[in-house]
Amino acid sequence: TGWPCTHAARGGTKMNIEDIDVFIGIDVGKSEHWATALSRDGRKVFDKSLPNDEERLRALYKKLADHGNLLVVVDQPATIGALAVAVAQDMGITVGYLPGLSMRRIADLTPGSAKTDAKDAAVIAGAARSMPHTLRAISTSDEDAAALSMLTGFDLDLARQVNQTANRIRGLYTQIHPALERVLGPWLEHDAVLEVIAAWPTPADLKRAGKARIDARLKKHGCRRHAAWAGQIVSALEHQTVVVAGTDAAAVVLPHLARQLIALHAQRADVAAQVETLVEAHPLYQVLTSMPGIGVR
Question: Is 144-282 a CATH 1.10.287.4070 domain?
Fold first, then answer.
């Protein structure tokens, strides 16, 4: 049975299905998928739901492999569809995906108006069997894109936490010593300053430490302007003599917040290094980074 003609997936690569005997369409879900498998002549050899579980996916692929070579096609190759793809790849099975736009076009031309997981899986399997030009092969670039998406998403979460933690530190200093906040607040992206806060969180602690020790700690942790910054911190302390209510509690909270912010900075640096490694491996990296406005300064 033929399927309606549709345009090829934009940017897609036509997949070779000449040696494929069974076409498995999987409509992926968070905890459960629906899989429809068609033979080369269009006969259904499987049409059921199955959990998003490696053991069950592997068992299904193994069972269907008795009919010949398999092609597994999903509607989402990343996130909730990643496990179905990974298991198939581990078993040496050809894997592809049907882009959303192509799937919607085919579904609109398919009899039956109700949208169900079973119908979507049948659409995917049918497209895999009759319209390979609508499919995209899952390549290393797709895997890299999924990795970059995960890493940048995590970095966005970390950036929010950095902002929240820094604002909390600034809020506490605004309460207990506004002049000190005006000096320390803009420097919270520097771990050397956070080390000072972790060691001597309150105005009284900083006064007892003195300029020389503050200077030494800033220098130890890589602050190039350690002498100037130590001087500004000590000068700020002279603007207030009273001890504000809540200072003792701030003495407990501030070191924890400072350490938390240092850890968040380290996590962001690690993620940035991972992203850079992925990007540098791209074949167009040298070309892109040499372009004005894109290249690294």
Answer: yes
Q: Where in the chain is the domain with CATH 3.30.420.10?
A: 22-138
Looking at residue 97, its amino acid is Y
Strands in the chain per DSSP E: 22-27, 32-39, 44-51, 70-74, 94-97, 136-137
Distance between CA atoms of residues 54 and 70, nearest Å: 17
Query: Range(s) for CATH 1.10.287.4070 in the chain?
Result: 144-282
CATH 3.50.30.10 applies to domain 22-138: no
Long-range contact list for 228-231, CB < 8 A, 24+ apart? 229/187, 229/193
| 3-class DSSP assignment, residue 3 | coil
Query: For residues 186 and 14, which has the higher predicted lDDT (pLDDT)?
Result: 186
What's the rounded Cα separation, in Å, for the pair 178 and 257? 18
Tens-digit pLDDT profile for residues 98-128: 886 666 777 666 555 556 778 889 889 988 8
Question: What three-state secondary structure class fits 47?
Answer: strand
